[in-house]
Each structure stands twice: as C-alpha cells, then as structure tokens.
Amino acid sequence: MGAIGPYHYKVWVIGEVLDRYESCKNGARKPNSKLFVKPPEMEGKLHRNAYFEDIVIYAVDIENLISRLESPLDEIIRKRYFEGDVRTFMEDFGISSRREARRLVVRAVNKFFHELEKYRRRSRVKRIA
What we know:
Blueprint: H1 6-25, E1 34-37, E2 55-58, H2 59-67, H3 73-78, H4 86-93, H5 98-128
Antiparallel strand pairs: 1-2
C-alpha cells in the first residue's frame, strides 16, 4: 500500500468521523457520547506513510461543526458527496460545470477537516490544562 495524498487522507478521516457519528445517531450509542476515531490496523501494523492521531469528539459537536459550514458545503458533508462521483452532486444541485462541482466538494472537505482540527486542538488543550 503506497502513500496517500492530503485530500484522500482528509476524506478518509471525515468518513471515519461520520461513520462513528451515524452509528451514535442511529441508537448504537447515546447521542452525547464520545466518538473514538482510530485508524484501522492491518496485521498489527498501522498504514505506512500516514499520520493519524486518535480523535475524541462528542456526537453533538459534529452536528455543530457541520452547521458552521455554509450552504452547499454543509450538504456535501451531510450527504457524503465527497465519497461518490461528482456527477451525482452536479445533478442534485443543478450545477453544469464539473470543475465548479469538484471545487465545491474539495472546499467542503478542506473546511470541515479544518473545523475538526480546530476542535481537536481546543479539546487537547483543555485535557492538558
């Protein structure tokens, strides 16, 4: 398995966070429970060439982070358009330019990942203090 680029890493992290969030939302855990997001292990070893720090985040805070995004970026994250073909996003939002649609998807991923990172840094400071 080779190295992954920054965009695909962000997509992977966001996908993991949303998977855990949806399992909490669907009754697997209490809505205000903590989500522990860790990289999957392959034969006892972590993926090569990828840095991953465990994230502990409350499910309700994920909703708040998504709601901070402007439209349509919030919908891109909520409906996971970043994981599928950009044409689906184009059809659903009536966008004729593939380039414009791709730009919006990348922007949503970058902004939401940035919000997750800010949250992680803030919560880390609280735990240390």
